[in-house]
Amino acid sequence: MAEAHTEVPTEKAPGLPQMDFATFEEQVVWLFLTFIVLFLIVSRLVLPRVTKVLEEREERIATDLDTAERFKKEAEDVKNAYEEAVAQARKQAHDTIIGAKEQIQADIAKAQADLDASLAEKAAAAEASIVKAREEALASVGDVAKEVAGELVSKLGGLDGDDAGVAKAVDAALSDAKGA
Fold first, then answer.
1. How far apart are CA 110 and CA 102, in angstroms?
2. Range of the domain at 73
3. Does residue 18 lie in a domain region?
4. Residue 117 to residues 51, 79, 114, 127: CA-CA distances in angstroms?
5. pLDDT at residue 109, as a whole number
6. What is the reported pLDDT for 17?
7. Contact yes or no for 146/166 (Cβ under 8 A)
8. How many domains does the chain have?
9. CA 35, 41, 46, 51: dihedral to nearest 10 degrees?
10. 162 phi/psi in degrees, rounded to 5
11. Alpha carbon distance 161, 166 (integer Å)
12. Residue 16: inside a domain, yes or no?
């Protein structure tokens, strides 16, 4: 540094003090000193803290990504298990419906067979009853025919007919009718 200034200016120079070339060297020295102090503060205190925060943030992000990936895999596993359970439930429901349908068809077939057997029994009983009634009617027809024939002979012919002869004639006519 060249010379020391012992004079104190009493008057301020117009303009910016930074542009005063008389104090330029002092300003450069103070600039370097301030820069060095700020550099030391930033490099020793602030930068390690920022670095630590950034590293923690990276770790947290990596952990969160790993956790998210694990949760995604678990969600896919749960989804696959759910879909498998739904498919199995649908198959089981389908099998149950098919089984119930077959059981109902078997019950209907059994009920139909029972009804057919019951109707066949009733039809056979009705036929037997009709045959019996027919036989009874035919048996009584002979008696009625004998009475009617006797009455006809007596009323139309004016004769008192022989009941035995009329009965013989009616039996002969009935046997001819049955044979035909």
1. 12
2. 23-179
3. no
4. 97, 56, 5, 15
5. 94
6. 72
7. yes
8. 1
9. 80
10. -80, 120
11. 7
12. no
CA separation for the pair 33, 152 (Å, rounded) = 166
This prediction has a pTM of 0.41
- Return the pLDDT at 115: 93
Q: Which two tokens stand for residue 127?
A: 């036929």
Q: Report DSSP letters for 74-134, one per residue.
A: HHHHHHHHHHHHHHHHHHHHHHHHHHHHHHHHHHHHHHHHHHHHHHHHHHHHHHHHHHHHH
Q: Is 14 within the bounds of a domain?
A: no
Span between the terminal Cα atoms of the chain, in Å = 167
What pLDDT digit, counting tens, does each position of 30-64 carry?
Answer: 999 999 999 999 999 999 999 999 999 999 999 99
The Cα–Cα gap between 112 and 161 comes to: 60
> Chunked in runs of 10, what are the mean pLDDT values of the chain (180 residues)?
54 68 85 95 92 96 96 96 96 95 94 93 92 81 76 73 73 72
Label residue 170 exposed, middle or buried (CB < 10 Å: 0-12, 13-18, 19+): buried
**Is residue 142 a contact partner of residue 171, using CB atoms and an 8 Å limit?**
yes
pLDDT at 60: 96
In a domain, 154, yes or no: yes
Cα 35 from chain centre = 76
The HSE-up count of residue 2 (CA atoms within 13 Å, CB side) is 4
Q: How far apart are CA 77 and CA 161, in angstroms?
A: 112
